[in-house]
Q: What sequence folds into this?
């Protein structure tokens, strides 16, 4: 009988190819060789980050990338892990149209076992199916749109409460204090989404709601602030990101608004507190995350982050840190269970039960936090420091 | 009425910034018949330049200066902003315009080289400075202090500063163009460059100086804008586009037109979407601000195809 | 309610042998009056020359006749080709009895009515070849649209071929066949003048308006030009309206002359009559025969 | 004399300034929040500034001594030497030499660092990578160009022959060394570095040979190329095609890059015993050789003898060979996929470079035949026929025409058969960035390049096309009537029609505005469309956008095509779109309308006086441009499956204008090249500079292009005549607006 070369070779498989490289370098001296990265016992896996690293939203991406970098650095210091982790980055500029190319460069790298990102909901919707087809697990640290979990992405996960969870919680709290609320969004996917859910919950709670949008590229918030004051609203919600919120806070103070000012997770950062200065004092934030001053792990995270990047952690850095750690744990679990492939890693991510600095995280079948999981906390800018007021449903 | 006046003042504040930037567009358009797309980066450079210079002279830790301190900060900021703006604008002309002029490039090539320059400058600034997360002027004084407060109508310090310095600079420019020798040569080049050259006007120098003047105004506007709001590397883009619209609205190439167009656009943006006279915040809504601005622009241009005051530098009104 | 009146605001008796019938036309720019109460008529088949010193309003008249400017007062009637009915150039938008706004027919409409023109400072399409310049003119009379062009429909190909043949004919007529595939911008001055005439002829005009065709040409070229104008007039049976400074040329080819000064018509008649007219001699012939007419017309 | 000193001083200062700017541009992301001025200190006070100042001084010297060097620069061989040097430097410094995931990056320096100590690689390879002399490849390179340069200066043919030999040695050695690494690493490899280096060295070698064979005469590279391509039309293509065919069969891998690099010789054995069909079996066994020889011989004979009938024969043979190859490739790759060989799940996967190269070679050989077959009879005999003055062929259809045709064939072969050999990343970039924007640029070229109207809101039509698709495929909150439920490709006519209407609607009120007024109004229009898309939540789903736009499907009789996640499928669809649009537009350019556009652009008043209805002509430009954009929008929406208003920002409109002008206004090939280069560049720069800096570099590239080549990359011949731009005197007719014109 003749041999069947094709079947013979096919049996080697992808793993075989990796092993080949490993073998090639095993007899090398320590000073180098082509496969030094993966040689010896220290196998190396890659976790990829996809997000905006250039363009208008680059700061957000950099915050997250830094968080991921810190997690990777800490993992590589941990000798008990049994493997090394590399972080690769892929820039999608936060633009759904540029996301497919960014995703393709991740997918084509065989060593990538999981993805942190994409940072934005739009980019996520554009590429999650591609990652799903490639079997790569995605752990999303910041794409908060309330509908992603319904779109049937196979390998997609999110580690924080989405807009539909965070918004209503904030709205219920506002309704306790004000009957007329001014809801402003920045016309971005995030701002508009979360503001819409806030507004609809407020209406359910019987409040009068005025909704307006102000483009995120605006710098002069004078007219809109004047409008808030004139409307006689007792509270104002801003859905958007920190830098714009800081400008808005200043304009609002200048216009003499005295009511409640509250915003979401996108604003809760040092960019806001330093940018707004005194005008930001007394702003409230809702966030589906733990209090960084209470949880000890979060404290050490803040210290390590500041030491590493010479700047305090900012919006979504902790989430990215947790997302990266979830992936590292999943790789570890997959390794312990036998084989590390994209699909086994994804299986392990599905089984995640992880307590990170932003909270206790596990995933439902749709990839989102299971219903009821993830408390939304209320925070306040107290003299330039962000302080937790605890669970928003209990908060005053 | 109170509301109306408050919105009007907010609009005038916004408009005076537009007008200051629009002057730069208009001046360059006057002499070269080109949109200087990189002018927004001149504005941005003025903001960064004044921020760095003011901070290094006065320091970051100083707060609540007395009135003479405030004046000092203002003068320093305006002059440093103007200086940096002028330098950048001069360099811009030398690098992105003059070589093309010498080669007789088509008109669009200028536009594209200016766009290239704009990308370059804003991203270089981003690379060098944008890691300053605290890109704000320190609170040397309370910018939002109400200077006047008459029956609910209030004007804050920064609004006063912005409107007054804008008006002063515009008057200065108007005088400069109508009454000085440099102004005459600028107008000459604007009217007919070839004839002007025959009359002994050095075209290169005049164009260079036009850029410098426009740059100085843009840089000063950058300081005003930066001290009122914030400073970042792409801060010039939106005000730049709006100021360009304002210049066209008033009649591009026309100095008084730029002033008028800027103020008008600011007021329209502030008043129309909010519509205080109908007492309603729900009339049009601020999410339509830019649409309102552009629709007004289109309407004006449909009835006056060369803007409110018409074209032509020096033939104002 | 608002309607474009097709009838002139002043009713004229029909005159079939008149190409242009201009009555009491006044054109103002801001405060400056460029044409003041000018009336003239142009007979079919004639070469009519309009002369006058710089700033007399000659080019303004041309621009009014071709729809570039809209005179505020007066009327202009046009019947360019043989058998055409008289058509008003100036239209009034009426609202009931009120005349709301006056506008001129668009330049290209007037061209389609059979009026072609050249420009004082040559205005060719320099980046097209000589042939293509003429084809642009010829093709304004064609009908095939962009879709048939994209799909290369047979009728479009036929039209393309016809326009090429016609353009070559015209180039031959003005003596430029050998420069057909050269860029218009690269042609010599005299050649450009002739090319402009060929382009104008391409639109099959009944009347052609030549704005200083001899400016900047040498004596030999002037002679050729005179021949060409006569040839156009006689062979193609095209009426010619001519602005020209060169008196020798004008007197040798024009059938009739109209003299403008300061926007007003001061004389009209045959070359002999004009040469003897004391008002003309005072206003014009005695003063200057300046070639440089840069300041004339619109900027006045 | 003092004026001279002053100029020199100015120049020196400018050069030093440039050095400082370079120092600011190159380096880490600098700046620190607490220490103002850190950025400058890090960039400027660090010793490295000396390097940049040194660059400035060098530049100054180069500029100052240019007059002395200039005579040498026109000598034969200088240009190819420069081109070769540039490509070798790019290959050594910028391009990837390996795609292995185990390397931090795939550049030569990284690869060499690892490879030189890897015992699994033969000593010949290791030597190249610097096991004995570190950086040997750079030394070889410097030696080769130094020798070549010396040969040019002193005109010694011995030196020139030496340079030629050295560059052949360096090129081939590098190529071989790379092959060794590739076979050792045994991982998929799409890197282009070694190949580009080989080409670069070949160019240097040919430059040296030219030097050796000529003596100091002035070189005119353009004329030289014309001579080569005009000598026997199609012959150069025959040479290229034959080389590619040999490369594809004798060198490159045919199957499954990861597991088994099987060359064409091994294919028959590999598939023995599998249910491949008879054709494939014959093909892998002997047919491929027959086809190869036949097409080479026929094409060679046709081009050498310039025989028309042979030319058609060559087209036929090439086409048949191509068809058979593709059929066989499909068959064996499907069989392999059935076996799950090397992770393949469907046909066409795992096919190596060799098979695709052979396909490209067949195409090029057929193209060579086509050039012979379609050679114009004899232009001189027919003086009356007009010569088309399209964007690309002003001069007579002789030599340059042949060059253009040959390039067209090569580009087409590349567009067809290069993408399958590229990485998934580049395939995606090709579809989502390059191809889409090429289509947009081709559309905008109608408006900006041909009709001369500055449109800064072009992306609005792209948005309209995308949203139309979303509407018709039922993914917007507002639902279409039942009978209007369409698949994306069926949405094309609707999108085109709606964009036509939108283009006319935008154009009608605004077209009486001149240049810059039009620019701001169109810009406003673009913004209005975007803001409406955000705010009209009940229609467009606002900022959340439309998700789930289905992928294209075609059901045409027996033909069932369904597009999925693979970017390649979309590439071929897009290629069809682009080719159709370009062909239609080429006809349009040389039609009555195209000339009318040119007339309006050149002189609107004269065009009116010649009877051109300028409003209609401009509206047509707007409408045609808009509908192209709408087509791109349909493609984009169904390709990506998700759209939101972020895709349609002002910046994209500005970028498309930049692409068109960068490429060369009014030239179809220019618009394509401009869009391709400027969308490729940011992705290429991903591997070269920090992500944040990319736009800065792109800005610098655009700026330099406009300074040194204001007419663009591939300028339109028509447009070139307008380079007097600013000096054009506008006469009274345009400048003055008479009192009655106020409306």
A:
């Amino acid at each position: 009988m003749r041999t069947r070369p094709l079947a013979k070779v096919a049996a080697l498989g992808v793993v075989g190819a990796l092993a080949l490289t490993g073998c090639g370098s095993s007899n090398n001296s320590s000073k180098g060789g082509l496969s030094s990265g993966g040689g010896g016992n220290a196998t190396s896996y890659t976790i990829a980050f996809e997000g905006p690293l250039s363009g208008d939203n680059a700061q957000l991406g950099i915050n997250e990338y830094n968080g991921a970098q810190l997690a990777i650095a800490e993992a590589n210091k941990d000798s008990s892990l049994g493997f090394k982790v590399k972080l690769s980055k892929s820039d999608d500029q936060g633009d759904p149209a540029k996301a497919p190319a960014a995703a393709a460069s991740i997918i084509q790298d065989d060593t990538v076992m999981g993805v942190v990102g994409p940072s934005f909901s739009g980019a996520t919707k554009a590429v999650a199916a591609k990652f799903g087809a490639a079997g790569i697990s995605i752990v999303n640290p910041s794409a908060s749109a309330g509908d992603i979990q319904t779109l049937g992405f196979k390998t997609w996960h999110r580690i924080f409460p989405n807009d539909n969870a965070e918004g209503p919680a904030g709205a219920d709290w506002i309704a306790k204090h004000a009957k007329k609320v001014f809801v402003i969004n920045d016309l971005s996917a995030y701002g508009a989404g979360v503001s819409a859910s806030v507004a609809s919950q407020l209406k359910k709670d019987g409040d009068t709601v005025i909704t307006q949008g102000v483009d995120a590229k605006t710098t002069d918030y004078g007219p809109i602030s004047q409008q808030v004051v004139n409307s006689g609203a007792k509270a104002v919600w801003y859905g958007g990101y920190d830098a714009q919120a800081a400008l808005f806070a200043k304009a609002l103070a200048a216009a003499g608004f005295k009511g409640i000012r509250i915003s979401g997770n996108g604003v809760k950062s040092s960019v806001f507190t330093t940018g707004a200065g005194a005008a930001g004092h007394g702003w409230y934030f809702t966030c589906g995350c733990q209090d960084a001053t209470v949880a000890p792990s979060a404290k050490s995270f803040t210290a390590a982050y500041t030491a590493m990047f010479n700047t305090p952690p900012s919006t979504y850095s902790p989430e990215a840190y947790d997302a990266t750690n979830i992936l590292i744990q999943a790789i570890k679990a997959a390794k312990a269970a036998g084989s590390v492939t994209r699909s086994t890693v994804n299986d392990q991510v599905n089984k995640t039960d992880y307590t990170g600095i932003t909270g206790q995280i596990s995933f439902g079948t749709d990839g989102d936090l299971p219903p009821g999981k993830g408390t939304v906390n209320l925070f306040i800018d107290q003299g330039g420091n962000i302080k937790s007021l605890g669970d928003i449903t209990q908060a005053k | 009425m109170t509301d109306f006046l408050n919105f009007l003042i907010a609009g005038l504040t916004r408009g005076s910034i537009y007008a200051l930037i629009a002057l730069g567009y208009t001046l360059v358009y006057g002499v070269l018949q080109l949109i200087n797309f990189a002018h927004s980066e001149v504005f941005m450079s003025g903001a960064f330049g004044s921020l760095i210079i003011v901070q290094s002279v006065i320091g970051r830790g100083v707060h609540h200066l007395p009135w003479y301190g405030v004046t000092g900060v203002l003068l320093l900021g305006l002059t440093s902003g103007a200086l940096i703006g002028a330098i950048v604008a001069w360099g811009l002309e030398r690098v992105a315009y003059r070589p093309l002029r010498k080669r007789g490039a088509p008109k669009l090539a200028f536009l594209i080289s200016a766009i290239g320059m704009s990308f370059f400058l804003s991203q270089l600034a981003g690379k060098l400075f944008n890691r300053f997360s605290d890109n704000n002027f320190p609170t040397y004084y309370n910018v939002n202090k109400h200077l006047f407060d008459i029956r609910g109508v209030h004007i804050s310090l920064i609004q006063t500063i912005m409107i007054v310095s804008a008006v002063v600079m515009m008057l200065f420019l108007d005088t400069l163009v109508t009454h000085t020798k440099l102004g005459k040569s600028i107008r000459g080049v604007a009217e007919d460059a070839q004839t002007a050259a025959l009359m002994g006007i050095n075209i290169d120098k005049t164009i260079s100086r036009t850029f410098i003047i426009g740059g100085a105004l843009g840089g000063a506007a950058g300081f005003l804008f930066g001290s009122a709001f914030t400073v970042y590397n792409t801060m010039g883009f939106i005000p730049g586009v709006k100021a360009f619209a304002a210049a066209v609205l008033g009649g591009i190439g026309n100095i008084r037109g730029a002033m008028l167009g800027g103020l008008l656009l600011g007021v329209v943006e502030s008043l129309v979407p909010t519509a205080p006279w109908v007492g309603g915040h729900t009339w049009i809504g601020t999410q339509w601000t830019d649409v309102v601005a552009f629709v007004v622009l289109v309407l004006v241009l449909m009835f006056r195809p060369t803007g409110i005051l018409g074209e032509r530098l020096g033939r104002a009104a | 309610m608002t309607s474009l009146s097709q009838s002139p605001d002043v009713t004229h008796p029909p005159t079939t042998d008149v190409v242009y019938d201009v009555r009491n036309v006044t054109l103002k720019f801001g405060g400056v009056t460029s044409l003041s109460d000018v009336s003239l008529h142009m007979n079919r088949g004639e070469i009519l020359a309009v002369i006058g010193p710089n700033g007399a309003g000659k080019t303004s008249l041309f621009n009014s006749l071709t729809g570039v400017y809209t005179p505020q007062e007066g009327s202009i009637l046009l019947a360019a080709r043989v058998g055409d009915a008289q058509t008003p150039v100036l239209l009034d938008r009426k609202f009931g009895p009120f005349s709301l706004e006056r506008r001129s027919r668009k330049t290209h409409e007037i061209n389609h009515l059979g009026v072609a023109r050249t420009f004082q400072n040559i205005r060719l399409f320099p980046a097209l070849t000589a042939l293509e310049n003429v084809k642009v003119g010829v093709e304004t009379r064609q009908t095939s649209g962009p879709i048939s062009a994209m799909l290369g429909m047979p009728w479009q190909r036929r039209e393309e071929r016809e326009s090429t043949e016609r353009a070559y004919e015209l180039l031959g007529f003005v003596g430029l066949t050998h420069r057909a595939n050269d860029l218009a911008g690269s042609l010599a001055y005299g050649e450009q003048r002739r090319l402009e005439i060929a382009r104008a002829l391409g639109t099959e005009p009944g009347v052609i308006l030549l704005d200083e065709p001899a400016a900047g040409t040498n004596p030999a070229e002037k002679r050729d030009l005179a021949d060409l104008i006569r040839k156009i007039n006689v062979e193609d049976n095209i009426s010619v309206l001519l602005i020209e400074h060169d008196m020798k040329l004008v007197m040798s080819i024009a059938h009739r002359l109209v003299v403008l000064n300061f926007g007003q018509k001061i004389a009209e008649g045959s070359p002999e009559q004009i040469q003897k007219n004391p008002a003309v001699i005072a206003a014009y012939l005695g003063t200057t025969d300046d070639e440089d007419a840069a300041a004339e017309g619109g900027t006045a | 004399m003092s004026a001279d000193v002053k100029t020199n001083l100015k120049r020196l200062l400018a050069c030093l300034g440039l050095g400082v700017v370079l120092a600011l541009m190159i380096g880490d992301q600098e700046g620190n929040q607490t220490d103002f001025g850190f950025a400058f200190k890090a960039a400027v006070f660090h010793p490295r500034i000396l390097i940049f100042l040194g660059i400035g001084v060098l530049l100054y010297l180069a500029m100052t001594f240019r007059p002395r060097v200039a005579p040498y620069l026109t000598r034969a061989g200088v240009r190819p030497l420069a081109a070769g040097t540039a490509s070798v430097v790019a290959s050594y410094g910028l391009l990837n030499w390996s795609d292995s995931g185990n390397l931090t990056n795939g550049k030569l320096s990284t690869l060499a660092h690892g490879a030189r100590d890897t015992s699994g690689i033969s000593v010949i390879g290791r030597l190249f990578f610097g096991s004995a002399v570190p950086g040997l490849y750079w030394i070889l390179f410097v030696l080769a160009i130094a020798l070549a340069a010396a040969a040019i200066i002193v005109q010694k043919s011995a030196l020139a022959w030496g340079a030629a030999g050295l560059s052949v040695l360096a090129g081939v050695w590098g190529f071989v060394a790379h092959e060794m690494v590739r076979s050792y690493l045994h991982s998929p490899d799409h890197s282009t570095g070694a190949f580009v280096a080989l080409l670069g060295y070949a160019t240097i070698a040919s430059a040296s040979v030219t030097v050796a064979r000529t003596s100091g005469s002035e070189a005119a590279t353009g004329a030289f190329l014309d001579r080569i391509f005009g000598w026997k039309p199609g012959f150069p293509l025959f040479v290229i095609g034959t080389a590619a065919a040999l490369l594809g069969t004798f060198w490159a891998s045919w199957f499954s890059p990861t597991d088994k690099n099987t060359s064409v010789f091994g294919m028959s054995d590999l598939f023995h015993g599998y249910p491949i069909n008879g054709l494939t079996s014959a093909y892998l066994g002997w047919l491929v050789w027959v086809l190869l020889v036949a097409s080479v011989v026929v094409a060679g004979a046709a081009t050498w003898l310039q025989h028309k009938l042979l030319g058609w024969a060559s087209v036929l043979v090439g086409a048949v060979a191509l068809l058979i190859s593709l059929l066989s490739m499909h068959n064996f790759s499907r069989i392999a996929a059935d076996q799950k060989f090397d992770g393949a799940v469907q046909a066409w996967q795992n096919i190596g470079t060799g098979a695709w190269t052979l396909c490209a070679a067949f195409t090029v050989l057929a193209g060579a035949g086509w050039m012979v077959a379609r050679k114009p009879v004899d232009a001189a005999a027919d003086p009356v026929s007009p010569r088309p003055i399209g964007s690309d062929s002003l001069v007579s259809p002789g030599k340059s025409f042949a060059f253009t045709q040959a390039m067209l064939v090569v580009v087409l072969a590349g567009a067809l058969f290069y993408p399958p050999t590229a990485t998934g990343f580049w395939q995606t970039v090709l579809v989502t960035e390059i191809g889409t924007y090429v289509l947009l640029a081709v559309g905008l070229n109608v408006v900006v390049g041909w009709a001369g109207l500055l449109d800064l809101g072009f992306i609005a039509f792209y948005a309209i096309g995308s949203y139309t698709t979303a509407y018709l495929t039922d993914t917007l909150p507002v639902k279409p009537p039942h009978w209007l439920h369409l698949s994306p490709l069926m949405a094309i006519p609707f999108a085109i029609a709606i964009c036509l209407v939108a283009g006319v609607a935008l154009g009608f009120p605004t077209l009486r505005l001149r240049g810059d007024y039009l620019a701001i109004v169109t810009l406003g229009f673009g913004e209005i469309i975007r803001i409406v898309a955000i705010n009209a939540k009940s229609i467009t789903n606002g900022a959340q956008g439309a998700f789930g736009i289905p992928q294209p499907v075609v059901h045409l009789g027996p033909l069932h095509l369904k597009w999925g996640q693979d970017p390649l499928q979309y590439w071929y669809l897009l290629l069809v779109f682009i080719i159709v649009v370009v062909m239609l537009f080429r006809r349009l350019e040389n039609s009555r309308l195209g000339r009318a556009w040119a007339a309006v652009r050149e002189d609107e008043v004269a065009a009116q006086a010649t009877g051109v209805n300028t409003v209609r002509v401009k509206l047509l430009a707007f409408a045609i441009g808009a509908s192209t954009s709408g087509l791109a929008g349909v493609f984009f929406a169904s390709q990506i499956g998700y759209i939101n208003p972020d895709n349609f920002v002002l910046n994209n409109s500005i970028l498309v204008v930049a692409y068109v002008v960068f490429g060369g206004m009014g030239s179809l090939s220019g618009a394509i090249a401009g869009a391709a280069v400027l969308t490729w560049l940011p992705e290429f720069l991903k591997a070269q500079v920090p992500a944040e800096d990319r736009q800065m570099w792109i800005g610098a590239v655009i700026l330099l292009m406009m300074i040194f080549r204001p007419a663009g990359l591939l300028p339109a011949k028509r447009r070139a005549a307008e380079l007097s731009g600013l000096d054009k005197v506008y006469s009274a007719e345009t400048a003055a607006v008479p009192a009655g014109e106020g409306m």
About this structure: The two ends of chain D are 60 Å apart (CA to CA). Chain D has a mean pLDDT of 83. The CA atoms of residues 74 and 218 of chain D lie 5 Å apart.
